[in-house]
Each structure stands twice: as structure tokens, then as C-alpha cells.
Amino acid sequence: LITYTNIPYLIPTGVCNLVHNVALHQKATQSSENSQLGAAGHAVDGKRDASFQRGSCTHTEEESDPWWRVDLENEYTIAAVTVTNRDEHENMLDGAEIWIGNSIDTNNIKNRCAVISHIPKGRTFYFSCSPAKGRYVTVLLRGSKKVLSLCEVEVFVPNYERPLPNVALKGEATQSSTLSGAAASKAIDGRRNSYYSDWFCSHTAEGQTDPWWRLDLRQTFVIVSIKVTNRGDCCAERLDGAEIRVGNSLQNNGNDNPRCATISHIRAGKTSTYQCDGGSMEGRFVNVIIPGKSKTLTLCEVEVYVAPAGKSL
């Protein structure tokens, strides 16, 4: 059983910023009910068990535009919503919309938090809501002959409104080689200064095969997004084709971990954001590698933002 009640944000200052799953055990309703086994309340019972047969998931009838809703009883500033998909029929949630507001209206686009493109079976995905304010959280699946099934919906409200923490600041960086004065740690110093000549960027030796940079976060996190700042004074194209990899293995220096994203191009001095696996990729190590011969890797800042840490009970 995994719950997210009273979970600390991991923030660089070390101050504990509590967040609460305010959906837990609140009143939930849905457009229809397939059976008692698929009751709406199963999505707010605090259990991420992805089995419908064990009575842990909701289930509507097959119908047009099925919906599920939780009443939080009060208006909250909502930082994020997580959704757990069932362990079978994983494509049923594709295209579902998450709505937040003080009414049950699902027509005002300003109240839409996110659209679920796909959640693999049995997985929990995290959706940042930027933040949004509201009493009701609705999951709506538009279309005819649709069935809506959810295994858990968690709604997170911070005690003190702060952004997600950049845990890269407390990590340890290394790289395949180092040009004098351009250590790997320069990319996690908290500054997006993009001029290499100002000594704020990392830099490998020039003309390497498969140069890489690695960040050790010191523990495993659920990674929501990664931001990369490219060099601004020249050579922006050098980062084209670089791969961001996330995982817990140090095999091949961590470069064999699952791929989060491929950097097609970041303009000189600009910062691009990459979401890994729908904002729920887990890992301790974050690698940036440029595959190929005669390559040079320069990074001016890498930021890693993580979801609230859970407790296994």
C-alpha cells in the first residue's frame, strides 16, 4: 500500500514543505456504475492497487462521455494530480481530461489541468496543474461507447505554495573528460549563465566519441521534468541529438539507462524542458550523452524537478 498523506517536498534548503492528498476518502461520484466492484470511491481509498478484480478501481458502464468526480469540500490551490491506471485494458484512459474548478462545468478550457495521452498499465502518472484552484476534480473521457476506469486519483495541495524542487543542486556531477576549468559541477551550480567564457558551463574534451555527463541525485526520485540550458556564446548545434537518460544503473557509466528524451535543438543560451515518461520516470542517475564520433559536450545548467516523495507502508 502506498499513500501520499503528509508527504514532504524535497527542497534545496532542507526545509520540509508538507503536501497533502486532499482527495483521500472524500466523496466521489461517477456518471454510471458497472457494479459495486467498480464504485467511484475506490479511486480515493489511498491504495494504488491496479487490479479491478481486487476491488481497487472504479468502472463506469459503456456510454458517451463518461466521467468521475471527487468533491474536496473546500476550494484548494492544487499543485498536482496523479492518476493510477489499471493493470489491464491500459488504453482505456487515453485522451481522458483532468478538470479542476469550483463548479462541475467541463467546458471552460481555463479549468482543464491536463489531457492524459497514455499511462502504461499499472503505472501512476503525475500531472502538474500550474497551479489551479477549485473544489471539484473531474476526469472526463469524451466520445461514444467509452468506459472510464480509474484505480487511484490523488490531489496534492502544498501548505506553502512553492515550485517543485530542483534536486540537481544537491547532486554530484561527473563527465567523460574535462576541459580545463569546465568541471561537470558547473552545470548544477544553480545559474543559467550561458557563456562558457564566464566559467559557468561544463565542457568535455573536444572531438570525443560518445561524450557524456552524469548527475548522481544520491537517491531515487520520481522525475517530473528536466531542464537543459545550452551554451550561448557559440556552438549551439553541438548539443543537437544529445540523449537524456534516467535510471538506477551505472552500467556503461549510466548511458544504458532508459531514454527520457532526445534533444533535437536548443537555441543558443536558451533553456528547454523535457518531461520523462509522462512526468513519472524514476531514477537516481541523469545522463546526457551525445552519440557519435568527434563530439563535444557543453552544458550550462541541468535542472531536475521531482514529484513529492512517497512512503511505502
Automatic annotation (TrEMBL):
Pfam families: F5_F8_type_C_2. Residues 19-165, 166-310 form the Fucolectin tachylectin-4 pentraxin-1 domain. Signal peptide: none annotated. GO terms for cellular component: extracellular region. The keyword Isomerase does not apply. It is found in: Secreted. Gene3D superfamilies: Galactose-binding domain-like. GO terms for molecular function: fucose binding; metal ion binding. Keywords: Calcium, Disulfide bond, Lectin, Metal-binding, Secreted. Transmembrane segments: none annotated. One of its GO terms (biological process) is regulation of cellular defense response. Homotrimer. Acts as a defensive agent. Recognizes blood group fucosylated oligosaccharides including A, B, H and Lewis B-type antigens. Does not recognize Lewis A antigen and has low affinity for monovalent haptens. Belongs to the fucolectin family. This is Fucolectin tachylectin-4 pentraxin-1 domain-containing protein. It comes from Amphiprion ocellaris.
